[in-house]
Design brief:
Elements (H helix, E strand, L loop, with lengths): L1 H23 L23 E5 L1 E3 L1 H5 L5 H4 E3 H13 L3 E2 L2 H8 L9 E8 L3 H12 L4 E5 L20 H6 L5 E5 L12 H19 L5 E3 L7 H9 L4 E3 L18 E2 L6 H8 L11
Parallel strand pairs: 1-5, 1-10, 2-3, 4-5, 5-6, 6-7, 8-9
Helix pairs in contact: 4-6, 4-10
This protein binds zinc ion (ZN).
Length: 286
């Protein structure tokens, strides 16, 4: 009887260990991700799209206040997040793959993350790009074309826009340039004429700089409505990224591609909850 009890306890312990390893630990802890393999974790199957803005040193971050603590992230924290993504076996994909997936055309290796960086701040090149390379990842850079837009400050090196030459020199396999308005003004507040011009100009300027087609845009400030999306389609954009939360799944409207803001103050635990496949609150949305 004693032996039965011991075996029973051992079995319960083994099952508990198995369950907990599936529930809260990566199944591929040493970068042994098999492309296309769902791993052993409970998973929604969607693509997670993350949104960043500016990258700063921890020392500089300590001096920030208010919104700047949301839209700037200490570069050391960004690196921890890339490492965490890799630990879970995530592969960073391009916007093309995410849009095709939303349209039901093809499926990227799973789990996949689309990293996006808004505005075109220089730190995307000086601080984020080396880390993306180090971790074998890539990002889509949504650039506001007017260097005098209010999101930039030419007097402050940490708030300046990438120069035209820097935009020209970006490697699209690491930082792929797409549009983010010309002036970063709220698009929904513009007249029809202004709106069309804003969408067209930003696209043409970036396309001329990079020599490549600009097919996607992210809405500045998430200030959009149906009219903005209609104009985006009319001006030739194939997809529009917004800042509404949700994962990208087959059937997601390509003109409302959801993204998660990664606030600069987010803890690693909070980030893990966000990206853990199948985590609460990250169920697929349409
Ligand atoms: Zn922006």
């Amino acid at each position: 009887m004693k032996n039965f009890k011991a075996v029973g306890i051992a079995l319960v312990a083994a099952v508990a260990a198995l369950l907990s390893s599936g529930a809260d630990a990566p199944t591929r802890s040493r970068n042994t991700a098999v492309p296309g393999s769902p791993g052993g974790v409970r998973d929604s199957g969607g693509i997670i799209c993350l949104m960043y803005h500016r990258f700063v040193t921890s020392a500089d971050y300590a001096g920030l206040a208010g919104d700047e603590r949301v839209y700037s992230i200490p570069v050391e924290r960004f690196e921890e997040q890339l490492a965490e993504l890799r630990r879970w076996g995530y592969r960073a994909i391009g916007a093309d793959e995410a849009v095709a997936f939303a349209r039901g055309e093809g499926r990227p290796p799973h789990p996949a993350v689309l990293i996006t960086i808004d505005d075109g701040n220089r730190s995307a090149l000086t601080m984020a790009e080396p880390l993306l390379r180090k971790y074998g990842m890539r990002a889509t850079l949504f650039v506001t074309t007017d260097p005098c837009a209010f999101v930039f400050d030419a007097e402050r090196p940490d708030r300046a826009r990438l120069t035209d030459d820097e935009i020209r020199s970006l490697d699209p396999r690491v930082l792929d340039v797409q549009a983010h308005g010309a002036t970063h003004r709220p698009l929904r507040d513009l007249s029809d004429r202004e709106l069309a011009a804003e969408l067209r100009e930003s696209r043409e300027v970036l396309s001329n700089l990079t020599g490549r087609r600009v097919a996607y845009m992210a809405v500045p400030g998430n200030w959009y409505d149906e009219r903005v999306l209609t104009f985006a389609r009319r001006e030739g954009y194939d997809a529009v990224f917004v800042s509404d939360r949700g994962r990208i799944v087959p059937g997601t409207n390509p003109y409302r591609m959801p993204r998660y803001t990664v606030q600069g103050y987010k803890s690693l635990g909070g980030f893990r909850k966000l990206i853990a496949p199948g985590a609460a609150g990250v169920e697929p949305t349409r």
